[in-house]
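Hello Y.,

Per our agreement to keep a running log of every chain we model this quarter, I'm adding this entry. I've kept the format consistent with earlier entries: sequence first, then predicted structure.
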Amino acid sequence: MNEVLQHWYNVSEGVHGFLLSDVSYLIEDLDKLEDEKSTINQDGNRKALEKILDSSNWKLENGRKEPFALLDVDHLDAKDSMRLYTGEKMIPILTDFATRLSENFTAEDLKAHAGSVNNHFVIRRLSGPRTGRATTKYSKEREHILAMIAYLLRGEVILYYGDEVGLQQSTTSQLDIDGGFETMNWNPDADSVKISNFYKQLGNIHGMINQTSETNTDDAIYKTEGGIFAFKRDQYIVVANLDDNNAEFDLKSEFLLPDNVTLIVKCSTPNSGLVLDEPILPSTFTAVGTSGYVMKF
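Predicted structure for the entry above:
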């Protein structure tokens, strides 16, 4: 495997690294195959991975630097996975953010998960070819809440093709047939356009906050109250209401904001009804049922 990586790294200057999927299954204990957890994240997997990634004897051509590896450890607890496979090394970890949460995840579930994997070297994926689209497990409103949280946490996000326009697992009912071709509805009021604009806003905020962040550590402050999950990172506050009903949340007291502060809406889930750049009074904020908001102060 190490020789395969070396060959492809040198044969193409367009390759800068490798995605190694299911590394926590590298070695299987044939006597314990019925107990899935006994074959995951065992020490033998780590030793095998070290051999695969050992490029110390590689003959790197054209002055190339050592490659990076993106490890897919979408099993068990991500924090334990990082500790086992990366040690002191800064190796990126790929995690299927949404699939780690149950269908009826709570605000406390979000708080526990976000705090366990929030750092620069986590790459989150909401949907994927193996897991399918997040909307097959969650409602589209909850999927949008997860996307908002993923983009505002520290780390990077992989967007699965089609999520940016709200495609379901089966897309036929969402497409208009025009002359035998299937085309998306791009009318300004169409859901696909609203969802596309939502992801564009998230991408812009994600880029700005990562460029201006002054720390490489997890500096986010997490809060929960009933069905509300909220966190503050730099000058941004994210609020998600997981309940079906509207809920009030005192942002000013929860995050110790100054008396004269005004929050500006920079992004919200398509069902929120709020307008971009709309000012919000933090002490009297009401979140619509199953909606999310990104505000800047």
